Amino acid sequence: MSKADLVIGIDCSTTASKAVVWDMTGRAVATGRRSYGQTHVRSGWVEQNAPDWWAATSAAIAEAVALVGSQRIAAIAITHQRETFVCLDKAGEPIRPAITWMDVRATAEVEAFGTPDVHRITGKPPNPTPAWYKLLWLKRHEPETIARTAHVVDVAGYLVQKLTGEWATSWACADPLGLVDLQRFDYDDGLLAAAGLSRHQVSRLLPPGAVAGQITASAGALLGLPAGLPVVVGAGDGQSAGLGCNVTKPGRAYLNLGTGVVSGVYAADYSHDTAYRTMGGPVPGTYILETFIGGGTQNIVWFIENFAGTAHNATAGKSPEQILEEAAMDVPIGAGGLLCLPYWTGAMTPYWDGHARGAFVGLSGVHGKAHMYRAILEGIALEQRLLTNGVEAASGSAITEILMLGGGSRSPLWCQIIADALGRTVKLVREQESTALGAGIHAAAAAGLYGDIRSAADGMTGIDTVFEPDMAAHARYSEIFDAYLDIYPSLRSTFQLLAESTR
């Protein structure tokens, strides 16, 4: 029999489930992946078929296991899209489609129930993302759903039950739902009652990195894994990405340049502020102070698809992004006096304004596609400077190390712009699948392949490329930043009027 020296990290994300087999150096040795869809019921309403999570996850695991052999697997751990939840009946079947984190139907509930007290308990400033507000919406608009609900589960809780038969999750998986008192790492009975729920309808909470149960014989036969294999509950995908970057010590922050731009800094103690949203950390008893820009690579894709017009001119082997990046490198800092406010999907931290929208300020006849492309890159970098400075000021703790990942980090120009705009060293992590690696780290520690979560993170993570700031460029960005800070406050009332005019 081969020694169990590998672990599986499951990342059940918004669009796909991925199973990555990791060795103890943090190297991916096998991967399985399956996609699934979403249903846009109406504007702002986004749902999913929860059984698709299991179908995709089970197929991805089986594919990955077949490449390495089941006897080498020591444990399996789960990370997942946050805030998304499903209501299940007594048989564990969905009563209605799952409501995703992107769904914003509960704006009235946010306005009515998003109090400072709820913010203090949950660490989440009032906004439509947490599931609690959508559960309040269901209580008002679909009371029969709440009446029939036997289990309300996050994505991890759903997969754990399919794998082990247990109704369990971690507090770092469940807390984004907005039902958890983050100072106690336990459900808040008042929040549950307000949604028409009780403790027997929600999953048992465990520390992140804990074993939730063992794979059943039936699940093992489907996956090609032995019955009894430990199943570990990790953390939500944002916190798991932080663990996969080794954000486990003071002063460290991760910066994920994905569809949205998510940054989180390690914190040992609980705090709450509108400058960030507080999440349970991937190391038990710790926290992640998180900022979020809704438009990251999504803004770039939007620009390319609608305005770039580069496809027919593309040089063999070069993507539209590469063509525009090369052109943008010849544009000076500040994009010729053009500034971009990157609020394509509204503003979260620090303004929490769902009516905010994107804007280009300073357009003139001298500006072309390259200027606009660079302005988008710079706008997101300047916004991240605002957010990083805000977290430091609100928390009283300095951020000394920024670890970067995500699809946008493949752009050397953008990475350098971020380093220059922030005036900080930015380190590109070795493993871009850091979210799944975070789950792998949890699995390795739980299986005893490392002594604890921090030592597993030290042993399984690393740095690829370092971007040092050009201080002359930083000085120029500091001048531009002063102008950038005026844009949103000047346009806030305009955004409100536009929202009212389109109702």
Describe what you observe in this structure.
The chain has 503 residues and is of the alpha+beta class. The strands form 7 sheets. It has a 7-stranded mixed sheet. A 6-stranded mixed sheet has the order 3-2-1-6-15-14. A hairpin with a 3-residue loop joins strand 16 and strand 17 (261-267). It is globular and about 65 Å long. It starts with 5 loop residues before the first strand and ends with a helix.
Using DSSP, what is the number of strands? 24
Mean pLDDT: 95
The whole-angstrom Rg is 22 Å
- Inertia-based shape: globular
In CATH, the architecture of the domain at 6-245 is: 2-Layer Sandwich
Which stretches are poorly predicted, pLDDT < 50 over at least 5 residues?
none
Number of helical runs?
17
How would the blueprint of this fold be written?
Blueprint: E1 6-12, E2 16-22, E3 28-35, E4 39-42, E5 45-48, H1 50-68, E6 73-80, E7 85-88, E8 98-99, H2 107-113, H3 116-122, H4 131-141, H5 143-148, E9 151-154, H6 155-164, E10 168-170, H7 171-174, E11 180-181, E12 186-187, H8 189-194, E13 204-206, E14 210-214, H9 217-223, E15 230-236, H10 237-244, E16 252-257, E17 261-267, E18 277-280, E19 287-293, H11 297-308, H12 320-329, E20 339-341, E21 359-361, H13 369-395, E22 401-405, H14 412-422, E23 426-429, H15 434-446, H16 453-460, E24 463-467, H17 471-501
